[in-house]
């Protein structure tokens, strides 16, 4: 009996990061559309490893994931990935910056672009988007380095330690209860 209780606590400890993952609908009720301020929207969001971005959009739109440079210039010629039709769900599987645009002519320049900063689960974030004027950490080796004379922020912390760091009270409490039960 004690062994079954101990096994149950162990399973809870291992799956608890997944419990906190959530689906985040891009743009909230507005969805993925032109003339919406995604920068303001992301500033009130936190994007964690394990969450999913859900893009809801009409038939004249789609979603391209692009590099920071292509995001800045609304360049659709070299997407990292393309997605359609709606809805599109994109898993946020690693910490770092991610960039999305609509490839339909002039939509990106009309504001249909999204930059998110994904943090390790349990890591507090000041906002969901990279601060303006800063250069986020590249999310792939194909992203060009920062120009000379500029500095990039340190890479986000990652790994199991940072994922479980925000849940230390839960883990310590669960382990204490386990030792009491084993008695």
Automatic annotation (TrEMBL):
Record-linked Gene3D superfamilies: Cupredoxins - blue copper proteins
Domain Phytocyanin: 22-120
Keyword annotations: Glycoprotein, Membrane, Metal-binding, Signal, Transmembrane, Transmembrane helix
Feature: compositional bias, Pro residues: 138-157
KW Metal-binding (keyword) present: yes
Region (Disordered): 125-160
Keyword Metal-binding: yes
GO cellular component terms, semicolon-separated: plasma membrane
Full protein name: Plastocyanin-like domain
Species assigned in the record: Olea europaea subsp. europaea
